[in-house]
Write a structure and sequence with these properties.
By secondary structure, the protein is mainly alpha-helical. The protein is built from eleven helices and two strands, in the order ααααββααααααα.
């Protein structure tokens, strides 16, 4: 094995850190933590069978991504639900993607667009999958679309936005949402294939904004449900 190949392979420590990060991120997305809740690092380390070092690394990474907030001397807290922040993130996402879509109609190759259309068709005709997989499919479509603009900074910003809204999007994903999303994705890809920038922007804007208010409303309802469920468990 060459030295470069060996260097490319993740170390045992890196594998543990990644596994801890993935486990905590899954907890955050599926609302195992309550908004504003202080995370007990000792309990988490015991639950995940790891030391404090990889746990802290994962918590710091999740803080950078917007899932948690760190309070000096007190620890890590799961983020509170902030409707204004959610609105601002969706507004930013819409502006970024609409600009990227227009650029993509000018810059993307036919082969790249055909590849996007093929993957969109495959996802629409696929079997039912988990909420996490549905969100991943939706994110993949939008990130591939933005990537066609050929602007790496746009892609980086969108990836960050997606990470910060995932814990809310998990709430409202279901079969009706899945069908509507795939229908919209196909229409957007077809407009892109026609190099119709105005149609692509219009369809994409409608798609992004379609459930923005519903998502925020659903988030409020889900948070209230989580607190009620947690209180019921404590009374047992």
């Amino acid at each position: 094995m060459s030295i470069s190949a060996a260097q490319d392979r993740p170390s045992a420590t890196e594998k543990v850190s990644t596994a801890v990060y993935d486990a905590l991120r899954s907890k955050a997305i599926t609302h195992a933590f309550l908004p504003g809740e202080r995370l007990n690092e000792g309990e988490l380390a015991t639950e995940l069978h790891v030391s404090r070092t990889p746990l802290r690394e994962a918590l710091s990474r999740l803080t950078t991504e917007g899932f948690l907030r760190a309070v000096p001397g007190k620890g890590f807290y799961f983020k509170e639900l902030d409707p204004k922040e959610l609105f601002d993130l969706y507004e930013l996402r819409a502006m970024l993607e609409l600009t990227a879509a227009r650029l993509a109609t000018e810059r993307a190759s036919t082969e790249q667009i055909d590849s996007l259309m093929a993957s969109t068709e495959e996802a629409a005709n696929g079997v039912e999958c988990s909420k996490t997989e549905l969100i991943a499919q939706d994110e993949q479509f939008h990130e591939r679309l933005v990537a066609l603009a050929g602007n790496a900074e746009m892609s980086r910003v969108l990836h960050n936005i997606n990470a910060r809204i995932q814990f809310v999007r998990w709430i409202e994903v279901g079969e009706p949402t899945r069908r509507a999303a795939h229908h919209s994705h196909k229409a957007i890809a077809q407009a892109l294939h026609r190099r119709d920038a105005e149609a692509c922007e219009a369809l994409l804007g409608k798609h992004i904004r379609r459930r923005q208010d519903d998502i925020i409303e659903a988030a409020h309802a889900r948070m209230a449900q989580l607190f009620t469920e947690r209180a019921a468990l404590h009374r047992r």
